[in-house]
Design a protein that fits this description.
single chain, 141 residues, alpha/beta, Ribosomal Protein L13p, Chain: A
């Protein structure tokens, strides 16, 4: 009888991604695959086997089409009149890291494991990042 081998202890690496002049959706899908661990031969769907990702230059991300003018991020607080909206331009000026964070989070599964996956994503608007001690390896996506 064949048995499926599950890898419940996979070492995690730190990966450095430069978002300068990258298209938002394409970059987010690649980051989501790395966080899930689908790029590894030891991928197990019910275990956190992905790597951790550091994204730099988030303020220089690109979008296609008219999304710069038309894209709107909205959320609801749960209270009456609690719906809030912010445009892509406003969010890029206010918090450019949140644009990549929201895009990647939307591409992860809706499970408790995804909450642990998204903790492995660190996004910085400029070149400097705080994960130098982890020695992340630079990857071109």
């Amino acid at each position: 009888m064949k048995k499926t081998k599950f890898f419940n202890h996979v070492p995690q690496k730190w990966i450095l991604v430069d978002a300068k002049d990258q298209v938002l959706g394409r970059l987010a899908t690649r980051i989501a695959r790395i966080l899930q661990g689908k790029h590894k031969a030891t991928f197990t769907p019910n275990f956190l086997c992905g790597d951790k990702v550091v994204v730099i230059n988030a303020s220089q991300i690109k979008v296609t089409g008219n999304k710069v003018d038309d894209k709107v991020y909205d959320w609801y607080s749960g209270y009456h009149s609690g719906r809030h909206e912010i445009t892509y331009k406003q969010l890029l000026a206010k918090n450019p890291g949140k644009i990549i964070y929201v895009a990647v989070k939307g591409m992860l599964p809706r499970t408790l494991l995804a909450k642990r996956m998204i903790r492995g994503l660190k996004v910085y608007p400029g070149e400097k990042h705080e994960q130098a001690a982890q020695k992340p390896e630079k990857v071109v996506l």
